[in-house]
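Example 3.2
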Amino acid sequence: MTPLLCICVPTYGRAGHVADLLALLTREIGDRDDVIVFVSDNASPDATAEVLAAHAARSPWLRFYRQDENVGPFRNLQWLIEHAPASEYLWCFGDDDRVLPGALAHTAELLREHRPTWLFNPYDSIDRDGVVGGGSPVPGVVQHYADAPAMYREWHHWLTFLSSSVVRTEAMRQAMRDTTAENAYLPVLWAFRAALHGRCMVAAEPAIRASTDISWADVAHLYQTLHFTSLFDDGLHLGLTEEEFGVTLDGLYVDGFGDWQWRKVPLERLAAAVRRFPQSRGLRRLLWEIAGEQERPDVLADLDAACRAMGLHVTVAELVAAGERAFAAGELPQAARLFAEAVELMPTWVPAWNGLAVAGFYTGDPAAPAAARSALFVAPDDADAIANHAAISAAPIAV
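Structure, written as tokens:
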């Protein structure tokens, strides 16, 4: 009988992690005969080979292979998938991640009951000090989706965590063969393609404890910016529109998660991402902030075009008009609020900055000079911006 599940573990130079994972899997698998574990040792220079041999001698469910030379992390994972023992499902798993108690049995139950093409297991995380926190959202009940695009629209960047995805074996293999991209998130592209027309599901509770001590920390800024925004062209376009993908980017970028990563990437690359995916509020915000920090008004045309592509200029013009009416009526706090809302939506709209600077000046807001400077940053030749900046800089804020 074909086993239900093959857990594929690529590893390199982390004998201790492998030993801990295999000890945990020994407890989780017990006397099950429907689970295989397949480890590919990427020519580790440490004791990984000895650890694997010792465990295999007493664990009938363990298979392992040692590469003749280090073939790189992705080729090692690809080799695992291509050569894994026969099974209905593949579960690719990081050697420093851990299955939570009972999660293996529960995952097997979900697979048998629902037969999805792609199962995503929520996860929490643990840091170097052993503190557990963070991780993916936890739905509390099983979530069902018609296909991978439907699941990606709701779960987007959470799906990029390698150890959370369980995918039908043959579909995963074929998707891997058909994908030619060079992207740090190849596994999610494979899973997405594999389940392009197959049912998907998300488990109700966390099944994985992820390590935050990632081996690729030195290139995280490239992975979580350029590689992540390249996912659309590299494979997600098969099931998502540009607009749909652009909206999902805010799952990663809107709350400040990507701030430091984009600051380590050439600003032109961020501007290109904003041009391509104007739907992302997070990317637009970052372009404005970093352009100001780096004194790069040359990229503001890309930001302005993105805002206009989203129709924000119409809304902002209405907000500014309402703010001017409130100012004329002496409702200065209301005017300031409307102008502030306008610049948050579209920071390239000079009348909004001018209005915010003047309203802030008369309400005693210490941020008024910054608003005046922002107006000049956007349009250094604007007469109102020049006059407002000169007046506000020369006089104390009214109180």
